[in-house]
């Protein structure tokens, strides 16, 4: 098997049809319209129009001009606008897909991951009142320790500090084996 085929198989293996379905249903609910029958999930999202409409529903005016016609570059521009709007909305840069992932259908699983990240980011926007996609992100749990508690923690020696009941690595011969010289 060629390396390229192996890489494609690994990427395709990451894809979860159930997550694709959840993301599609979330988009349909927010936009109030169903995906056309017989059109694949990635094919319907490919030109970026639906993604821009979704972003404008979540945060009105975030993408003022959506290209509905034009060449390939105009459609890829929609995807780029969606990605920029996602980042501005609170989606982490590492959670956003690359334009080629959708346009060339290289990694649709990453596109779905971005949609789930967008769904999680929507929890942090009080102006949006659902539906949400994915689990609610955890809130910060800030702790305040007294000076006495902090000093008490300094006297504790963890096992990684070398007090592992006298265990050492002496006697282990990792790497080069013993060299035995034979007599002449």
Mind sketching the topology for me?
Layout: H1 3-14, H2 17-31, H3 41-45, H4 49-58, H5 72-89, H6 99-103, H7 108-121, H8 147-154
Helix pairs in contact: 4-5
Domain Calponin-homology (CH): 17-122
GO molecular function: actin filament binding
Pfam family, one: Calponin
Give a description of the structure.
This protein has 184 residues and is mostly helical. It has a domain at 3-124: Calponin-like domain (Actin-binding Protein, T-fimbrin, domain 1, Orthogonal Bundle). 47% of the residues lie in helices and 0% in strands. The chain has helices at residues 3-14, 17-31, 41-45, 49-58, 72-89, 99-103, 108-121, 147-154. Helix 4 (49-58) runs parallel beside helix 5. The radius of gyration is 26 Å and the shape is flat. The model has no long low-confidence stretch (mean pLDDT 82). This is Transgelin. Residues 1-20 are annotated as: Disordered. Belongs to the calponin family. One of its GO terms (molecular function) is actin filament binding. Residues 17-122 form the Calponin-homology (CH) domain.
């Amino acid at each position: 098997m060629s390396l390229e085929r192996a890489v494609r198989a690994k990427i395709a293996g990451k894809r979860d049809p159930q997550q694709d379905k959840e993301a599609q249903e979330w988009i349909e609910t927010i936009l109030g319209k169903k995906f056309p029958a017989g059109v694949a999930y990635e094919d319907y999202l490919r030109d970026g129009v639906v993604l821009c409409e979704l972003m404008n529903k979540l945060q009105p005016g975030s993408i003022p001009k959506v290209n509905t016609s034009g060449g390939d570059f105009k459609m890829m521009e929609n995807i780029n606008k969606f990605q920029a709007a996602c980042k501005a909305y609170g989606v982490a840069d590492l959670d956003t897909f690359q334009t080629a992932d959708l346009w060339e259908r290289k990694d649709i699983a990453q596109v779905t991951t971005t949609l789930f990240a967008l769904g999680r980011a929507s929890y942090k926007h009080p102006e949006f009142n659902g539906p949400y996609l994915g689990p609610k992100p955890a809130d910060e749990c800030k702790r305040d320790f007294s000076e006495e508690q902090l000093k008490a923690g300094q006297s504790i020696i963890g096992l990684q500090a070398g007090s592992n009941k006298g265990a050492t690595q002496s006697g282990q011969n990792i790497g080069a084996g013993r060299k035995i010289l034979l007599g002449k």
